[in-house]
Amino acid sequence: SSSVTITDKNSTPNAWDIIKEVSEKSKAVPLPILPDATALSTTIVTSKTHAQSCYPFSLQYLAMCMLRVLTRPAGSHNGKLDGETVNACMIVVKFYSLYRGISSDDMRSL
Q: What is the pLDDT of residues 27-48, one digit of tens each?
């Protein structure tokens, strides 16, 4: 038998090879679910030293993810990431940083 594996933004790049391997072994078809075009938009960030990094999601989408985390009822998230979490927004930013070096075009080509 076969199945479909649905992956979203929580399936970070470091998990893609694992998803591929599991899908091949289980005869599943991995199906990435991508945000809409306003969220899936390459963002280039330039540091003070003028180094540039690209990310596949807009800064508006990052802000929306932070808002969603901050407005979650306490204890409602399996990973315990909600508005009661110390440094909740920094955790979201660190998650966003896992996508450094990946453009929105890279995401679309999955």
A: 888 877 777 888 999 999 999 9
Q: Which of 93, 74, 69 is nearest to 84 (CA)?
A: 74
Residue 54, C-beta contacts closer than 8 angstroms, at least 6 positions apart: 42, 43, 44, 45, 100, 101, 102, 103
Give long-range contacts, CB 8 A cutoff, 24+ apart: 31-36: 31/4, 31/5, 31/6, 31/7, 32/7, 32/8, 32/107, 32/110, 33/6, 33/7, 33/8, 34/107, 34/108, 35/9, 35/61
At 73-83, the pLDDT tens digits run: 998 988 889 99
